[in-house]
Specification:
Elements (H helix, E strand, L loop, with lengths): L1 H20 L10 H7 L10 E8 L8 H20 L3 E2 L2 H7 L2 H8 L3 H11 L3 E13 L8 E13 L5 E13 L2 H27 L21 H9 L26
């Protein structure tokens, strides 16, 4: 009996150590400044305006506190990374005010019409939609406070003008952690640089060249010199006192008087 109990304890300890150490595979560190320098995007130009929208991929269900915390934190992480890459992110508070929950769910589900509408209302040139889903499950095989955490994040970069896809990437992981929300945030913090860099590189390769670089038209018509220029010429004597005769009009030269005939 004692041998059996000892074997169970050893098995339990080995399993617990494995679960605690078997975290998600972390990506190699990414230098965003170097990624920006090495990209094919134009250097020294103002980047496009981007609206970042993060929400749950779960449909028809309100976010719990942990999910809401993960979404807000991920939005802040991406906001910071895209500033470093030269973009101009829309204020997250403005995005939350302008895009209601129902519309956000439509956008995250792939509704192009809703995406274009949101981009127009926010004045954004690009949209980054981020659908996240993480769940935790109790470990029932052994007595442990750790939980199995399942994480999926899908990121899509769209042209806000027509809804065309410019870049996308995703991540899917399963790992163990005592606090699921903390475990997910720790993973995202270590990997968000890589996700942002991948989107940026694909954007630079695939995006239309005029996004974020087009010059704003002045709206003024090119002067033809019709009125003001002509008036100036008249004042300077460039145009003679007489004007060309048009069909059906009288000659502009003075008529002879009776004194001239004498």
């Amino acid at each position: 009996m004692s041998e059996m109990r000892k074997m169970l304890w050893i098995t339990w300890l080995i399993t617990l150590v494995f679960l605690c150490l078997a975290g998600p595979a972390l990506a190699d560190p990414v230098n965003l400044d170097q990624v920006k320098m090495d990209s094919s995007c134009p250097k020294g130009k103002t980047g496009p305006t981007i609206a970042i929208m993060v929400g749950s991929a779960s449909k028809g269900r309100a976010l719990d506190l942990d999910e809401a915390q993960v979404c807000r934190s991920l939005e802040e992480m991406l906001h910071d990374r895209f500033i470093r890459l030269g973009f101009r992110p829309v204020d997250p508070k403005r995005v939350q005010q302008m895009v209601e929950a129902k519309k956000l769910r439509l956008i995250l589900s792939g509704d192009i019409t809703a995406a274009i509408s949101a981009g127009s209302s926010l004045g954004a040139q690009l949209l980054l939609t981020v659908a996240s889903d993480f769940r935790s499950k109790e470990i029932t095989v052994i007595r442990s406070a750790s939980k199995t955490v399942y994480l999926t994040v899908n990121l899509r970069l769209l042209n806000a003008g027509n809804g065309a896809y410019l870049a996308n990437t995703s991540v899917s992981e399963r790992f163990a952690g005592l606090d699921p929300a903390y475990s997910v945030l720790a993973y995202l913090e270590k990997n968000v640089d890589g996700l942002a860099a991948e989107l940026y590189q694909k954007y630079c390769e695939n995006a239309p060249k005029n996004i974020g670089t087009a010059k704003r038209k002045s709206g003024k018509k090119k002067s033809t010199g019709s009125s003001d220029d002509r008036g100036e010429r008249l004042r300077s004597g460039e145009e003679g006192a007489s004007q060309p005769t048009t069909k059906g009009s009288h000659e502009s030269t003075p008529k002879a008087t009776s004194m001239d005939n004498l």
